[in-house]
Design a protein that fits this description.
Number of helices: 7
Largest sheet: none
Order of helices and strands: HHHHHHH
CATH architecture: Alpha Horseshoe
CATH class: Mainly Alpha
Number of strands: 0
Distance between the termini: 51 Å
Helix content: over 70%
Strand content: under 5%
């Protein structure tokens, strides 16, 4: 099936909407949007947002206190990002999983996961995602 530009836009829109629902403390509505985004991925075979779908699902599930399901989603996001060699998506998934592990007292595991991924990046170190990873690593150093 040839890619339509609007399908890519739809995927980005659904992810943004899901994230907004999460920020508005409406995680179930966010999960509904992610389900639509996942259907779009399967329909179009445009998989570049797949890791981010899983990561955002993890964040929404975590906000619902579904810790085990959130961890599963973060692990799935990592798996997809690694398979796609998508370093940015891998960083985001690793950062969120490391934060969860830190909160669970798994500080060594969190640092061991995040540190090498953060180390790949030599540019863009002032971006929000890399700054958050840097600060989390600093917290994990103690």
């Amino acid at each position: 099936m040839p890619r339509r530009e609007s399908q890519v836009d739809d995927s980005i829109f659904l992810l943004t909407l899901a994230d907004a629902y999460g920020m508005a403390a409406q995680p179930q509505q966010g999960l509904d949007q992610l389900a639509e985004a996942a259907k779009l991925v399967e329909t179009t075979h445009e998989r570049w947002t797949e890791a981010e779908i899983h990561r955002l699902r993890g964040r929404l599930l975590l906000s619902m206190h579904e810790h085990a399901a959130a961890e599963d989603s973060y692990r799935r996001a990592l798996e997809v990002a690694r398979r796609q060699s998508a370093k940015f998506w891998e960083l985001r998934a690793a950062r969120d999983l490391a934060r969860l592990w830190c909160d669970q007292g798994k500080r060594t595991e969190a640092r061991d996961l995040l540190s090498p991924i953060y180390g790949w990046f030599t540019e863009g170190l002032e971006t929000r995602d890399l700054n958050e990873a840097k600060h989390l690593l600093a917290d994990l150093a103690y």
